[in-house]
Sequence to fold (464 residues):
Amino acid sequence: MKLENPEDQIYVLERGNDAVHVMKSIILSGMKEDAFYVLDIGEIVRKYEEWKVKLPRVEPYYAVKCNDSQMVLEVLAALGTGFDCASKGEINKVLSLGVDPSRIIYANPAKPISHIRYASEYGIDTMTFDNEMELQKVKQFHPNAQLVIRIRCDAEVAQCQLGMKFGCDPITEAPRLLRLAKSLGLDVIGVSFHVGSGCGDPPVFGRAIYSARQIFDLGNSLGFHMRVLDLGGGYPGYTGYSMNRIAEIINISLDEYFPVEEGVSIIAEPGRYFVASAFTLATLIHSKRDILGDSESEVPSHTMYYINDGVYGSFNCIIYDHAVCTPIPFNILDSPDDFAYRETLIPSSVWGPTCDGLDKVNDDILLPEMPVGSWLIYRDMGAYTLPVASTFNGYPIPKVHAVIEEHVWMMLKDRLPLTGDHFIKDNSLQSVRNDSWDELPHMLDDYEDIIPYSSYVGEVASTN
Ligand SMILES: Cc1ncc(COP(=O)(O)O)c(C=O)c1O
Fold:
């Protein structure tokens, strides 16, 4: 597949380098001002491998809404995942990668008619529903659809609950809907649920699988051939997260309620699991304000830092995804537990770049005193960040620099839709850096009374 946008290229790392090295290299070049991401493709591949080992019976259909970056979709397509699409736009994006329509589930229980027609035209047959009107629409605009009934089963603890919006009650609503589907001559092939995104209640998967079993039995007794169980999303994906507990509960429940011999196809719709830890965001402190305790005091009681990405950009996740984003000062990236650093912490807050008072990234946290021109790094920024970000107040959406370790590249490079054109391989980081240069050095010439930004970078460099 030919690359339309050269920004979608992936930089192949020299042996011994990693994503953090690239981030440091871009920052230390002293030529970068805008916030930017480093995407570690190897992290997505590692997640995929972990999934295959821990949930061997479950085929992942990546939830595109979580992060629809072209590179993420291409890598997952190359690995062979399916895709959960929420709209015609997402379906179109996935089909344009050459993904077969049979690898797509249209998993939005409330679909505009034109999107249902589009799905029908392009052979996307598998789709979810949870209400009567949806069945009527499908009957009219995609009568050959293979329908999956979405039931409600909510986690007691989740980062984002979804049950208040989607999922019919398995006892009071599902039987009536299945009967209606039968009377309309529609084909119901399975059951789905979504326990809530960022699930902190692993046993809910056991409860949901049990509930799905009841609906399977009812569906089969009504004459449907029930053959797909969709476990939805909900699997956390932050650095260091262990999938073990959820996987254990899912595997035990599947063996009990959906034994292999029955031949039911088990799928899931993980979003954040695949991408959260793969994206690291670097932001620049471009301004700061010291709040003095009283008029006599020389010592600030609080420092406000202003960075070049905020809640209208990547950090929209704080509002919409209830995310907590923790900054790491660039110069202690390698040693966040350094004792000397802890001694110097002062009460601080971190603010986004727009003129809105709501645009606050971190409230009341302890940070070392940092000059303008310092960088703050945020890990685990891959889920529900970029697709929602806007350019409000004229601030650009951070660019993504994708990198891949050589051994991962060797494994992926010939797998479609990836091709030789997708990768840049040279032995310096020049191509990544060139790509990153802004107009910054010229801008700084205009400010006589602040220390040039590049000397801050010099300071940072000497501490590393
Ligand atoms: C239908 C559906 N499937 C999957 C997902 C992905 O969820 P997660 O990122 O928690 O895995 C979502 C998220 O909202 C969703 O609405």
